[in-house]
Amino acid sequence: MPEDKLSIREWLPLLGMTASTFILNTSEFMPIGLLTDIAEDFRITEARAGMLISVYAWVVMLLSLPLMLLVCRMEMKRLLIGTLALFGGCQLLSAFSGNYWMLMASRIGVACAHSVFWSIASPMAVRFVPEKFRSLALGMIVTGSSIAIIVGLPVGRLVGLQIGWRMTFLSVGIIAFAILLYLQFAAPKIPGSGSFSVRDLPALLHNPFLIGIYVLSALFATAYYTAYSYIEPFLKQIAHQPDGLITWILVLFGGAGIAGSWLFSRFYDRMPRAFLLLTLVFTAAALFLLYPAAAHLWMLLALCAVWGIAGTAFNVTCQAEVIRSTPENGTAVAMSIFSGIFNFGIATGSLFGGMVSTHLSLAWIGCAGGIVSSAALLFCAVFQAKHRK
Fold first, then answer.
1. End-to-end Cα, the chain, rounded Å
2. What is the rounded CA–CA span in Å between residue 63 and residue 58?
3. Residue 157 confidence (pLDDT)
4. Dihedral through CA 341, CA 325, CA 81, CA 134, nearest 10?
5. Does 389 lie in the same domain as 320?
6. DSSP of 367-387, one letter per residue?
7. How many Å apart are CA 68 and CA 120, to the nearest integer?
8. 108: domain range?
9. Radius of gyration over alpha carbons of the chain, in Å?
10. Residue 90: closest CA among 122, 115, 65
11. Where are the alpha helices (DSSP H) in the chain?
């Protein structure tokens, strides 16, 4: 019986990793709801304050692989503790920033911690547990992200509105150090990637299955964020929903993410290829139906739930496939490439969605994303047919 369930010793570090993903994602989303306050405090435009978000995404995209190659030989627990220390320290620096450039520097520091963390989070989580519980471990990592959307985003905004944006960053920094102390005692030591170096990269990238996952991830992220990046103005201007309800619809995406994580842990191991295809089918359908659903609230809510479930399920499935198709000494580096490529897709999707919104109409962002998602679905079907085991 003991082998049919996780022991307390295995659950403790897994819960710590879930808390870590929660606080890192909360930090990533927070500035979105605090831009006006930051702009007013430093007497700058909101567009300039918005550069804090843009620069953050570009740093994660560009530095995920170089930073991971630099630190991949470190023992992973030590690397995790160091990453959380950098994250927490930079959050405190953000809280006490005297000017815009000091805040920008601290956010770049947080982005560096983000780059390393997302390269090691999933590989560490699956090594905390026996192989049969890997899907559960990955699901827990994604659950932390989903809870950040449900709780972290609105709570961060609420704290910022009540006692100032600086206290929001300060609170995140303090929580990060509390999680650091917990993991220092709860997490076991895990060897680093050992022998992996820059010279091993060509062999890693020679894996056609891995390259297929990367291409598919870039297409999916582009499709998803073509529409999701502009979902708030879409809900306001096209669906004509009030501000309060828009907040709850966005929270619904996070709740749907937990459902997507649960579905992954239940069905992925039984039918991995079909599960991946279904996430793409439902994403494409949700995007194509976004504009028609805007006229009916119940349809819109159902569609956003399906969209959120499919998006999370796809993301965690791709992480599982990256880990499964990579030698153990290369998983962290492979995940860093995945993180960089996914962030590239986010940036590309946001740019494409902006172009569609500007030159066509905001109403067409769903259709535009659906077309790219259909291309991802076609690529996945052809790739799976070509690489049948």
1. 33
2. 8
3. 61
4. 120
5. yes
6. HHHHHHHHHHHHHHHHHHHHT
7. 9
8. 1-192
9. 20
10. 115
11. 8-42, 46-71, 76-95, 100-127, 134-147, 153-163, 165-186, 201-205, 208-228, 231-233, 243-267, 272-288, 290-293, 297-324, 331-359, 365-386
Q: What's the rounded Cα separation, in Å, for the pair 292 and 288? A: 8
CATH number at residue 112: 1.20.1250.20
Residue type, 381: A
Claim to verify: residue 220 and residue 358 sit in the same structural domain: yes
Query: For residues 260 and 279, what is the distance between their CA atoms, to the nearest angstrom?
Result: 9
* pLDDT score at 374: 93
Report d(CA 162, CA 155) in Å as an integer: 10
Would you state the pLDDT for residue 84? 94
Task: For residues 110 and 79, give the distance between their C-alpha atoms in angstroms, rounded to a whole number.
Answer: 15
| HEC secondary structure over 158-217 | HHHHHHCHHHHHHHHHHHHHHHHHHHHHHCCCCCCCCCCCHHHHHHHHCCHHHHHHHHHH
Q: Looking at the structure, do residues 243 and 165 belong to the same domain, yes or no?
A: no
Q: What is the pLDDT of residue 313?
A: 86
Relative orientation angle of helices 365-386 and 331-359, to the nearest 10 degrees = 140
* Integer angstrom CA distances of residue 303 from 113, 189, 291, 375: 34, 43, 11, 20
The set of residues, in sequence order, having a beta carbon less than 8 Å from that of 13 and lying 6+ positions away, is: 128, 183, 186, 187, 188
Distance (Å, rounded) from C-alpha 355 to C-alpha 222? Answer: 13
Residues 274-321 pLDDT 10s: 888 899 999 999 999 988 988 888 888 999 889 988 988 888 888 778
d(CA 271, CA 300): 29
Helix (H) or strand (E) holding 90: helix 76-95
Confidence at residue 191, expressed as pLDDT on a 0 to 100 scale: 66
Domain identity same for 174 and 217: no
Residue at 241: amino acid letter: Q
Scanning the structure block, which residue is given the tokens 């009916």? 296
Q: Out of 192, 210, 235, pick the residue that ends a domain.
A: 192
Number of domains in the chain: 2
Q: Pick out the chain residues at pLDDT < 50.
A: 1-2
What pLDDT score was predicted for residue 1?
40
- The length of the chain in residues reads 389
> What pTM does this model have?
0.75
Provide the total of helices (H) and of strands (E) in the chain, helices listed first.
16, 0
DSSP reduced 3-state for 84: helix
